[in-house]
Amino acid sequence: MNQDQCPLCNSTANHKLFATNGYDMLACDNCELMFISPFPQSEKQRFQQVAANKLADITVIDPEHYSIAREIYYQELFPLVKPAFQKAKSLLDIGCGTGHLLTLAKQCGIKQCDGLELNTARATYAREHTGCDIIEKPIEEFQTDKKYDVITLIDVLSHIYSYDKLFVAVKSLLNANGLFVIKTGQFAAGVQRGSVFDWEVPDHLHFMGMATSDYIAKKYGLEIISQEQVAHADELYTRERFLTKGRSCKRNLIKAILAYTPFAIKLLKWQYLQKHGRNVFSTVIVLQNKKDNQRI
Q1: 206 and which of 12, 35, 122, 242 could share a cystine (Cβ 3.0–4.6 Å)?
Q2: What element of type H or E holds 150?
Q3: pLDDT tens per residue across span 208-257
């Protein structure tokens, strides 16, 4: 694949938005996907690039603290995801972490809940605390005779190397009329480097534009059932989020200080909106597998 070729639609028509961490951020003129350039030529190269660019103060959060962070996170997110669980009897969570979404799904009455998680410590924690089957394989290599009513992909899409491999795998695992729930970032035209504090590339490879979800649905024979957006500023600038630990020790300390400083978060949000407005969104997209269209 050409390093400036869109990883979703393969178009080479694009324009540069900005540069960050040694990479250009390009926007596809066809499907509006934003992606890094040079784009890794293989999954192996992608993993090597992530390792080479990892900051010294970035650490993998231990399962206990990660679980606490996700519990806080899902207090806001789960109401957007829950409607997809209403009639489901089976669920697969891709990148399930410590399994908090699996626990919530079981509380909704879904009896068969499975998870995929590559981090061994988190997979072990999820297995012990949820009682679910947790498989330590990527979705592209996961093989089973099971079919699922709902498959979830929460904050994982931007890490996926191949859209085609992802959607081939997901469609093979979905029941007819099954739902694929994606939570990811979505970006309007005019987004700037400063619109996001840290793009974390090349850990993140690509980001959805405002029209990208429509292109995905058409390409892979899916139908958009719902698409709920929350502005980045409204989601990020809250005391709860500032107290949620991330992967950077330095940022965790700074965020904690700001969280306990009167009016600091409100001032930061006001400054952000004055400069960037609302052009970055956290989006939950529910796609339905078309019963009469199983092609890729």
Answers
A1: 35
A2: strand 148-154
A3: 999 999 999 999 999 999 999 999 888 888 888 888 777 678 888 898 89
Its domain, for residue 242, covers 62-289
Question: Does residue 156 form part of some domain?
Answer: yes
Predicted TM-score (pTM) of the model is: 0.88
Structure tokens at 16: 């540069």
User: For the chain, where are the alpha helices, taking DSSP H only?
Assistant: 43-53, 63-81, 100-107, 120-130, 163-173, 212-219, 232-236, 239-243, 249-259, 264-276
CA distance 223 to 187: 21
DSSP result, 40-51:
PSSHHHHHHHHH
In 3D, which of 4, 14, 12, 3 has the Cα closest to residue 209?
14
Q: What is the dihedral of CA 60, 64, 70, 72, to 10 degrees?
A: -130
CATH number at residue 139: 3.40.50.150
Determine the Cα–Cα distance for residues 255 and 246; give it in Å rounded to an integer: 10
